[in-house]
């Protein structure tokens, strides 16, 4: 029997589900034994894995979140690309099996998958159906509709119309993908390390200017950088619409006592009339290098097992994360999952919207710090400490400086 | 005004040791009262209760007209010299002495003057800037003394304040303290083991023994009329000779057979104790008491003859210029200097 | 050193050895490593690294957000150190003084220390939480709008409060044990010399407590500077955003979370140098005034 | 004389005055009670909260009153096996935390006392140097040097061992510094007397210094035990073996999702675990209370 | 075997105070040498250097044949009683006393026996289980004493070991310590302020003054032939009277005019100091010295007459049974009891 280790960042019930899947895998065959180990937050997990790699103690599989992807993928030789791993070990693999939004995010410029998408999510708009009904509106498809129709009505009905969690993810990265705007040079960073961010775009500046106006008008409220702080008022029924992760579905379902549903992330008609798919969030699994063929074979077997339709459906249903393969999506639909929970389908659909030139993903080093810069500046915008224009200049400047530094580390 | 009154005051330590049996007495205002007694008899305990540092187990303690059982030490307006000095280790000598004054809001110049004055009296002027740890034992003790005397309290409490000084300095100190206390008219309680100190300084002496008060009186009363054999043998160096004897019709006969001159014990027939101080008797061929000298001890100014009278231990002090040898001799006894005590409890008859 | 110190040579070396070996391996080695990597830009996996000289340092000097963090750290450290010490000292003095219930008070006051930091942090954020925080609600009733995570100073005050709260028991325990070691007789002498308990405290107790106080001062400064990062992290929920942050949290954010090894090493080195200067100053100017025996 | 006094006594039998109200004592208690409340109300709330279900807590925050899930939460916290290998439950995590707490506290105190002893009580030419070398370690917390430390531990093959968990944490000067401060204020006369009594360095240390430092050791022990007990980041980094998981790690795993809201953390169970995690340290505190007795260096009269 | 030799030993404290000037002398094996001198003169410092507790600034110190400058106190095989007791606060009385024995590997039963024996001698048997903080000052001092005497050292060092005991107990202790020391034949150095202690216990006395040795000699030598006015006035209570005078052709005249009887100062013409002990002179109508009495002090066994001779302060001790009043009287002086010293340095002629 070959033993392999799998480090992840899934706490609470998610962790239990991971354990469950691992146990199932071990029970399903007799050749390989996988041991999942909880290593703290995403950041802690990644850092542990890096440290372990440097000490030659790395796990076979590590879970890496979106913002850390550039670091892992940049470090060629630290991981074995999944596609290669799978084909080396004779596992049938076809990129086309994967949902289009999922396929490219953890792939290289040529589309070769480096990381195995695992817990994938995407930002969607949850809404309080009772509230919308009371206000006599439906979920807005565009921001124009929101500003003109939805928000005034909801405000009138006594609700704070809109809140969101995670400005860098939802209102920046996915703003760019939803409108198919270029986010960074070098094909969003896929084709080189000397990348420059292109965040200071008029469209997004306009969006943030709109946000501040909405905030003043009472259409939008910002509760700080913390994810939950923005989600709580929605669950409490104070906020009518909330932008969050498709993976938030399970939690909301447990906790709210009103009818809720979800819609796709709105877009600006002024920017595009052909909105595109969004990026995936969440995390992927990477096979670390430095292991013998037998262990890599076990890793490949586990990945294969994970990607199987049954398991994807199980994971999707149990956690709210999107299924990563089309087959799994269809299977879930067949089971009637979406009839029961229409909101659970929104994320998958959004990820299957038409792709654009810049919707594959983005690859930028030191991206965790870049997000910190964004968060800082956005916070300052929304507390009136800076202007939108200044903020974006600062973000772009600081981000580019970080990118340049990252490029140097790769040299 | 600052008389100290104890009314059935008693002290039992948490471990059950009774350090002071219920005691009642008054220390008159303005007097200096010396406490004497063997080691461990309760002197420090008594002082510490007056100071408020030790809880009073039972009874009532007043200073002036106030019952102070529950009054904080700081509010009793006392000054105390501790047996172990208790100096503030982080303060210089001058600061140690001035601390009590500073707290009473005296201005700096005045404090400095007072400290200087006291330190001169105590020969500490060169050491004013030193820390206690850089002083000799006697110097520390003097600092402790200085800390008390710079103050102008209602009551002085001195716990063996001169024990670590040489005879000469001690002599000086004793006189100066006495003078100071008289001048200020401050009531004082003074613990000492030094008989000379006790005799010369005290207005009144309290003799303590194992937690009980044996006698209270002026030095003269204590010395000339000891209330018990304990007091008699405790006060006086060398101590009073105590001999067992019998009284019959007023006359007193020693156990070994001799009659005691100048002794009348009317109405106390039966066993008895006879006390004669070594300096109240002297070699005199015409004397009445046969004495058998074993050894002679030289003490400088005087000489002690140790031996037996009627087979019982007996000492005689003679001035060093008087010739003396061992062997048998006769002793004369000073009339009126024979003390009689009952045989079992040792109380004066 | 004691006056009556032992004259042996090899024995004390033997005594020092475990400590020295441990710190050599687990402190000096990593510290040297930090110093070295502060001059490089390095790929976290160790594949590539570029010597960049003082770049990592000059970058900090010109970063306004770094300077903001430095300012905040100064304010934060001063307040936390001061209040954590002052409140603990007050409590320790009182606990040392009362006779009745002394044991109970001691136990209760030490108790909180037993709370695990993540739990303490969680208690903190939950109490100060924007929508369900008990303290937030209390303040709301008093007409104070309190928005943790949105308003810079609201967040700062929560960080400061929780940090103080968490540190009080430590200080309390050490102050209490320090108080116990003051000779009774000296306290008694002071009781006679001084009517005012407060003055007595400042004149006698406090100077004699100084060795413990000095220890605690340094420990508290290092606590506020370094050990509070867990609290900061919990309160900002891992996303500093526009909220205040301390310098060490930045080290953690950039290094442990962000894998910018060179940059965060430079920050560590700056911190170390700052604290080293601070402590040397304290040793030179404060310890002189401490009386040990 | 004594007789005379006795007659005086009979006249005025002492009547103890009614105890005065001591305002300063009341003040002292008021301060202590306020302090205890400040410290303890949050703890109480954790306890109350541990009796509720996750959803309520998530919606309403910390609770003052008691709910109905006390039994469920504590049972789950203590006895439900968790983790992948099902080898850990509250009880085993408790045991691991205990080993970490004890090992760390004892190790640190021993190493620290030894070093402080060498610095204070020996005429060593490089004592100051040694002190400074040790002292500077106060400056860099483990979190900042955690990655290189990890490399050392793995290089020494100490990953997944108690030694690897404990020893690097000892590499800081707190205990040494603290004992140095205390030793320096121990009266000089004691070492003098002991040396005259024929005690060498070892005997003096064991017979005199250690017993005299009881209170200080107790203080240090409480602090260090809890510090070790509550370690999180380091154990997470260096252990992968679930049987080495500690309580705090268990708590973290439960409340991990608090910040991102994707699911409801099991607050009640976390609170229960927090209470359980608090119990041994509190017991240690209660136990060492007896060491906090006054008067080791006291010398009144 | 355990003689103590100092060869130009000197002590300067870090603050620059010279506590002992370079001194050379020997303390013979088996003898008990008493150190006396005013407070702060360097007695404790000397003792502590012998013990090895204080670094020797200069010179060489040997115990027996060994130079011990660099030998650890623990290896000098000494026992010491500290001036401030230095008891171990965490040990019971019995443990305090037994600690030194335990360190020497003695077995428990033997230790217990030794401790019991010592504690009986010191009247401490009831206190064996107590902590020092529960003892009175004198009891603590006795524990400190006990700690020394249970041992069987090469050298005893006693620093005012009886200062806090009452006269009676002190008397007993003194005799017992002396007997013990004789029996064991252990060399001993003993600091005391008590003249009686010094005179009765010492084989030899060393008089220290401000860090220098004034005189070394037997008690008798010191008392009868003081080497300096310092020694003369330091030893003896009340102290020797010192009068300024002039010598001319052997005859001595006081500054005020009177001739001094029995005094010959041949070859020392010029200013001179004359010493007469208070007990070497007495009221005698036929006496040669005119004395003017101001006050009378009662000391119990004797009486002190304080007054003036030729205008210079003078005291006379008379036995209490001799009548005495204030006013003018004549004094006789004991032949051979007049001491002459040079005027400026005060050295004996
Ligand atoms: N640590 C020190 N630093 C500086 N000077 C000191 C120190 N210890 C003692 N001295 C000084 O040295 C001198 C001698 O001190 P020592 O203790 O030997 O006196 P002593 O003869 O024992 O006096 P006492 O009879 O008062 O105990 C004193 O003047 C004292 O002030
Ligand atoms: N804290 C205490 N606990 C128990 N017993 C004590 C305590 N302090 C003193 N004692 C005992 O009480 C008795 C009286 O002690 P105290 O100190 O008053 O004696 P003292 O007369 O001052 O003696 P000394 O002349 O030796 O100083 C002694 O037997 C002593 O052992
Ligand atoms: O909450 P998740 O797991 O969907 O992740 C959201 C974003 O990817 C955070 O980077
Ligand atoms: Mg006493
Ligand atoms: Mg001395």
Automatic annotation (TrEMBL), chains B, E:
Membrane-spanning segments: none
InterPro entries associated with the record: AAA+_ATPase (IPR003593), ABC_transporter-like_ATP-bd (IPR003439), ABC_transporter-like_CS (IPR017871), ABC_transpr_MalK-like (IPR015855), ABC_transpr_MalK/UgpC-like (IPR047641), Mo/tungstate-bd_C_term_dom (IPR008995), NA-bd_OB-fold (IPR012340), OB_MalK-like (IPR040582)
UniProt xrefs under Pfam families: ABC_tran, OB_MalK
Gene Ontology terms describing biological process: carbohydrate transport; glycerol-3-phosphate transmembrane transport; glycerophosphodiester transmembrane transport
Span list, region Disordered: 260-281
GO terms assigned for molecular function: ABC-type transporter activity; ATP binding; ATP hydrolysis activity
Gene Ontology annotations for the cellular component aspect, listed alphabetically: ATP-binding cassette (ABC) transporter complex, substrate-binding subunit-containing
Alphabetic keyword roster: ATP-binding, Cell inner membrane, Cell membrane, Membrane, Nucleotide-binding, Sugar transport, Translocase, Transport
Domain ABC transporter stretches: 4-235
Family: Belongs to the ABC transporter superfamily.
Protein known as: Sn-glycerol-3-phosphate ABC transporter ATP-binding protein UgpC
Organism of derivation: Gymnodinialimonas phycosphaerae
TrEMBL record, chain C:
Location in the cell: Cell inner membrane; Cell membrane
UniProt domain ABC transmembrane type-1: residue ranges: 70-282
TM helices/strands, residue ranges: 12-31, 69-93, 105-128, 164-183, 204-226, 266-286
Superkingdom in the source lineage: Bacteria
Statement: the UniProt record of this protein carries the keyword Cell inner membrane: yes
Topological category with respect to the lipid bilayer: Multi-pass membrane protein
Keywords: Cell inner membrane, Cell membrane, Membrane, Transmembrane, Transmembrane helix, Transport
Any GO BP annotation: transmembrane transport
One GO cellular component term noted in the UniProt record for this chain: plasma membrane
Family: Belongs to the binding-protein-dependent transport system permease family.
Subunit structure: The complex is composed of two ATP-binding proteins (UgpC), two transmembrane proteins (UgpA and UgpE) and a solute-binding protein (UgpB).
Biological role stated in the UniProt entry: Part of the ABC transporter complex UgpBAEC involved in sn-glycerol-3-phosphate (G3P) import. Probably responsible for the translocation of the substrate across the membrane.
Entries under PANTHER family matching the protein: BLL4140 PROTEIN (PTHR43227), SN-GLYCEROL-3-PHOSPHATE TRANSPORT SYSTEM PERMEASE PROTEIN UGPA (PTHR43227:SF9)
Official protein name in the record: sn-glycerol-3-phosphate transport system permease protein UgpA
Organism whose genome encodes this protein: Gymnodinialimonas phycosphaerae
TrEMBL record, chain D:
ABC transmembrane type-1 domain location: 94-288
GO BP, one annotated term: transmembrane transport
UniProt cross-references to InterPro entries, sorted A to Z: MetI-like (IPR000515), MetI-like_sf (IPR035906)
Keyword hit for Membrane: yes
Pfam families noted in UniProt: BPD_transp_1 (PF00528)
Keyword match Transmembrane helix: yes
Major site of localization recorded for this protein: membrane
Keyword vocabulary terms for this entry: Cell inner membrane, Cell membrane, Membrane, Transmembrane, Transmembrane helix, Transport
PANTHER family registered for this protein in UniProt: ABC TRANSPORTER PERMEASE PROTEIN MG189-RELATED-RELATED (PTHR43744), SN-GLYCEROL-3-PHOSPHATE TRANSPORT SYSTEM PERMEASE PROTEIN UGPE (PTHR43744:SF8)
Subunit organization: The complex is composed of two ATP-binding proteins (UgpC), two transmembrane proteins (UgpA and UgpE) and a solute-binding protein (UgpB).
Its job: Part of the ABC transporter complex UgpBAEC involved in sn-glycerol-3-phosphate (G3P) import. Probably responsible for the translocation of the substrate across the membrane.
Protein name: sn-glycerol-3-phosphate transport system permease protein UgpE
Organism: Gymnodinialimonas phycosphaerae
